[in-house]
Specification:
By secondary structure, the chain is of the alpha+beta class. The N and C termini lie far apart (about 60 Å). Helices cover about 45% and strands about 10% of the residues. Keywords: DNA-binding, Transcription, Transcription regulation.
């Protein structure tokens, strides 16, 4: 085959190739070996899928619905280029009885549009907005594999890892942030065997490049000099993106920026002293020295005084999680939560924000009773000893492993198991 990323070489019989692939798929699921003529990109994907624990009879799960989905889509960078994607792909999908789909960098489908009957059929396998179609969730498929390998790819018939997806053919290409090169998601075309053609792969690749060009045009001119983003979740030293530079801050400077980003009106020196230091003997001179060093690091103009304040809005990952929680977008909030706020910080005000944010998200997760969201928290470093989360997980996913971990945790903490309610 001339191009390993194209599903069928010229002149190949789709029906015969589908039969051969079904036999190869059965061989792999039974024995773990990949026979010819399975393409290397598919063989590698099958192996990754198996290592991730995907079963051939599984199905996609819907992670974002209703308010969660709407809030997450509205904030996603690809929302800005959806009108262009619809213009380029919409009529092709509708006229050819195909679907256009756009996923995020985690393989979650954000938009699925196109022919109504085809959409209805696809819905039966949860190929719907809000469903996770990453390789780790549902195995080999074009949008999930495209973001996994960061390449345009076709997946034909029984090349799909999950059997219920094998009647379909799809082609997808990743879309990148034109400033950073980071994968934002992928554009996909899904339908019948007719898509197993080099033209469909070239088509989605062209749409992805057009989307990247549009994002570049929509971005501010120059090195994003007026854009300031603070990442402080899950790390002891925050990162600040400012003026096209990424700055790693010391712990104290991280604490100061977290607090000033939260108080755009500014804080007096006394307020900052109380917020940052438990030790009441720390003098204003110490704080002024820290702020002088921070001002030199940030460059001119961003940090003002009397009161101490930031002269431009700084978007923090803490604020993103709080906004999503405020509108009930629990799944989207959990996705944005990279861990506790500056976990090593002992600054009183930072510790309060850290505790409130974690408690608010935990409470929302327990109330939501979503087993996947609870499992994600329970298996994270900050959740592995979280008794309430493990109890909530055991209530909705009472597997032997979960029950065993819960019993061990209750024993370690010296806590009795709650009494069972007779049913």
């Amino acid at each position: 085959m001339t191009d390993p990323w194209v599903a069928l070489e010229p002149g190949a019989d789709p029906a015969e190739r589908a039969r051969v692939l079904r036999r190869a798929h059965e061989t792999f699921t039974a024995a773990g070996t990949v026979p010819q003529p399975v393409r290397s990109v598919v063989a590698d994907s099958w192996r990754r899928s198996a290592r991730a624990g995907v079963g051939p009879d599984g199905t996609a799960s819907v992670e974002l619905a209703d308010g969660d989905l709407g809030a997450y889509r509205a904030e996603h960078p690809l929302a800005r280029v959806m009108p262009l994607i619809r213009e380029l792909m919409g009529s092709f999908a509708a006229d050819g009885e195909h679907l256009l789909a756009v996923c995020d960098e985690h393989g979650r489908l954000l938009w699925v549009e196109g022919h109504a009957t085809t959409r209805q059929r696809a819905g039966r396998m949860n190929f719907v907005p809000g469903a996770r179609w990453s390789e780790a969730a549902v195995g080999t498929n074009a949008p999930g594999t495209a973001v996994a390998v960061d390449r345009p790819v076709q997946v034909f018939a029984a090349e799909h890892f999950i059997r219920r997806v094998q009647p379909w053919t799809c082609a997808a290409a990743p879309v990148h942030d034109p400033r950073t090169g980071r994968v934002l998601g992928a554009v996909d075309i899904t339908g019948g065997d007719g898509l197993a053609h080099p033209h469909s792969l070239g088509f989605v690749q062209a749409v992805a490049r057009a989307a990247e060009s549009q994002l570049a045009l929509l971005a501010p001119a120059g090195p994003a000099a007026d854009r300031h983003e603070l990442s402080a979740l899950g790390r002891d030293e925050a990162h600040l993106l400012t003026g096209g530079r990424r700055i790693r801050l010391s712990r104290r400077h991280s604490e100061i920026l977290v607090l000033l980003a939260r108080h755009p009106e500014g804080l007096t020196g006394d307020e900052l002293l109380c917020a940052l230091y438990e030790d009441e003997t720390v003098t204003p001179v110490t704080l002024r020295a820290e702020l002088a060093r921070l001002r030199r690091i940030l460059g001119p103009g961003l940090l003002a005084s009397r009161p101490y304040r930031l002269t431009a809005p700084v978007e923090s990952d803490v604020a993103v999680v709080e906004r999503r929680l405020a509108v009930g977008a629990v799944s989207a909030a959990a996705t944005a939560y990279a861990g506790p706020l500056l976990p090593g910080s002992q600054a009183p005000a930072v510790a309060r924000i850290r505790r409130r944010l974690a408690d608010g998200l935990r409470t929302a997760l327990i109330a939501r009773r979503d087993p996947d969201l609870l499992a994600d928290w329970a298996h994270a470093p900050w959740g592995e000893d979280d008794l309430d989360i493990w109890r909530a997980l055991a209530a909705v996913r009472p597997t032997a492993a979960v029950r065993s971990r819960l019993a061990a945790l209750e024993s370690e903490l010296g806590v009795a198991a709650p009494p069972r309610v007779a049913g």
